[in-house]
């Protein structure tokens, strides 16, 4: 009897435990609440990071469209050192195109390139210099170098750096700028002195003069371009001597920027002199206007009293150009 009672008590306890477990399982199965641990681990990583912590920050703020135009008050992040190149449209409207300057040449290179095109000019006892500016034998020099040839009908002899001599004729003069053109009788292509672009002439640049001082051909001197006169003449510190007249004034690319024509005092004491040259702009126009001429020119002979009123025929007249 006692054993039967103990068995019933044990069975009742087991049944109670099973009922309790069933209720717990039922409550879990029917519950809509998420488990707290799982809910925390399921949060997106992207939303858990602030913008400062993000490894790939955008280059522009997220709220600013990448293709939007900057506002007037906004300053660019990068300021260019040089202005942008002009467009083809702006060039067509007349805006000058920037060009890179040619590299400077050494003194030796300039001498070797230019000297073959620099000539010595003889008119009677007068000696001067000149530059061949056309392969067919056109030479530019000074009017005062060839004046005796026009006044006295004296021969013009042109001597090249090679020693070859040719006869020449004066075909044009510009007394205001002291320029003259000589056409040589030489045959075959001759070396030429290249003419510089007038826009590249700058005060302070190194300049060279090549000529025949005292008849000694092929002498080069160097100096600086000091100023450009109101007339447009180039004033430099190169040393010129008698015989240099008519020779080229050159830049560091070996191009002619002027035609040497004389000297002037650098101060009131006359102890130092500066040189003068007609600028290449005037020289180029003079060449272009007269390069096709073939007929020699001469100045009319001056006859004392000729063409003057009777009251002045017996008086001496100072022409002022002798």
Question: Describe it for me?
Answer:
The structure is a single chain. 26% of the residues are buried. The protein has 322 residues and is an alpha+beta fold. It has a 6-stranded antiparallel beta barrel. It has helices at residues 2-30, 36-41, 88-92, 107-114, 143-152, 280-290; strands at residues 118-123, 126-134, 138-141, 156-159, 165-174, 179-184, 206-211, 219-228, 234-236, 248-250, 256-265, 273-279. Helix content is 21%, strand content 24%.
Give a short account of the largest sheet.
6 strands, antiparallel, barrel
Mean pLDDT equals 74
Morphology: rod-shaped
Q: Strands of the largest sheet, in order across it?
A: 1-2-3-6-5-4
Radius of gyration in whole Å, from Cα? Answer: 48 Å
Distance between the terminal alpha carbons, to the nearest Å?
171 Å
> How many alpha or pi helices?
6
How does the helix and strand content classify structurally?
A: alpha+beta
How are helices and strands ordered from N to C? HHHHEEEHEEEEEEEEEH
Count every beta strand, where a strand is a DSSP E run of 2 or more residues. Answer: 12
- Report the β-strand fraction as a percent range: 15-25%
Estimate the helix proportion, in percent.
10-25%
* pLDDT < 50 runs, ≥5 residues: 32-99, 302-322
């Amino acid at each position: 009897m006692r054993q039967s009672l103990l068995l019933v008590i044990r069975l009742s306890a087991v049944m109670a435990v099973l009922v309790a477990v069933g209720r717990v399982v039922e409550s879990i199965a029917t519950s809509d609440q998420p488990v707290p641990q799982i809910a925390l681990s399921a949060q997106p990583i992207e939303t858990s990071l602030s913008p400062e912590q993000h490894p790939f920050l955008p280059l522009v703020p997220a709220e600013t469209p990448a293709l939007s135009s900057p506002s007037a008050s906004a300053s660019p992040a990068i300021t260019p050192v040089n202005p942008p190149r002009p467009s083809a449209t702006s060039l067509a409207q007349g805006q000058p195109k920037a060009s890179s300057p040619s590299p400077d040449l050494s003194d030796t290179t300039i001498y070797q390139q230019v000297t073959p095109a620099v000539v010595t000019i003889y008119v009677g006892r007068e000696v001067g210099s000149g530059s061949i500016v056309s392969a067919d034998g056109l030479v530019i020099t000074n009017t005062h170098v060839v004046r005796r040839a026009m006044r006295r009908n004296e021969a013009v002899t042109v001597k090249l750096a090679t020693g070859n001599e040719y006869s020449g004729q004066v075909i044009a003069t510009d007394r205001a700028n002291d320029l003259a053109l000589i056409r040589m009788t030489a045959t075959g292509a001759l070396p030429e002195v290249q003419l510089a672009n007038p826009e590249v002439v700058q005060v302070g640049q190194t300049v060279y003069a090549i000529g025949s001082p005292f008849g000694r051909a092929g002498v080069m001197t160097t100096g600086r371009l000091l100023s450009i006169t109101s007339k447009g003449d180039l004033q430099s510190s190169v040393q010129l001597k008698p015989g240099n007249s008519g020779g080229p004034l050159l830049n560091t690319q070996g191009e002619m920027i002027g035609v040497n024509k004389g000297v002037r005092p650098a101060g009131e004491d006359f102890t130092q002199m500066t040189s003068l040259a007609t600028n290449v702009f005037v020289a180029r126009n003079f060449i272009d206007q007269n390069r096709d001429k073939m007929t020699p020119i001469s100045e009319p002979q001056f006859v004392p009293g000729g063409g003057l009123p009777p009251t002045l025929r017996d008086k001496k007249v100072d022409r002022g150009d002798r």
